[in-house]
Design goal:
This protein has about 180 residues and is mainly α. It contains 10 helices and no strands. It is globular. The structure holds zinc ion. Zinc ion binds near residues 72, 74 and 84. It holds the Pfam family zf-RVT.
Length: about 180
Amino acid sequence: MCKQLFFSTGGYSIRKMYLCLLGQFPKVYWRRVVCNNFASPKSLFILWLAVHGRLLTKDRLMQWGIVTDGVCSLCGVDPESVQHMFFQCSYARQVWQKFLQILHINRSSQAFDQELQFAMRMSKKCIAVSKLLLAGFAEAVYCLWIQRNQRVFVGHIQSAEQIVKEIVFKVACRCRDSDIALLLY
Ligand SMILES: [Zn+2]
């Protein structure tokens, strides 16, 4: 397998071998948000599912005829979808906007794709706040998905204030000590 490539400069190149084995794939636009993120692995997995539209939201379950009620489990008003739940939903908006306020980011919460684009823009900035925002974004998606499932399977959810505290705690547990002060409110 492309043996001459690894020996082309007279010596064996582990780097060339590695790149060859890795293969060439197009870079996905959301890579910085998911890959350069210190959030917990489980929250990154749920975020990855959300990015790929693979979460079992009610709009998808209705398409398969599994459920007939498509109302959002968080607000009980609008149709449930990834775009709505993160972060157009009135409940989710309270959570996300409060977290943004803690980071002193003045922004109105929009649909998932818009917030993902915003997180991508922030990921290009080498400042502490952008790292905290990326982690908070993943933890918020995870916490809201857990709350959605709590409503469906248990019947109740926590208040938006409690979820904000949980997100801040999760981010604070994994961020650098020098950045914790940015999460105090
Ligand atoms: Zn909703």
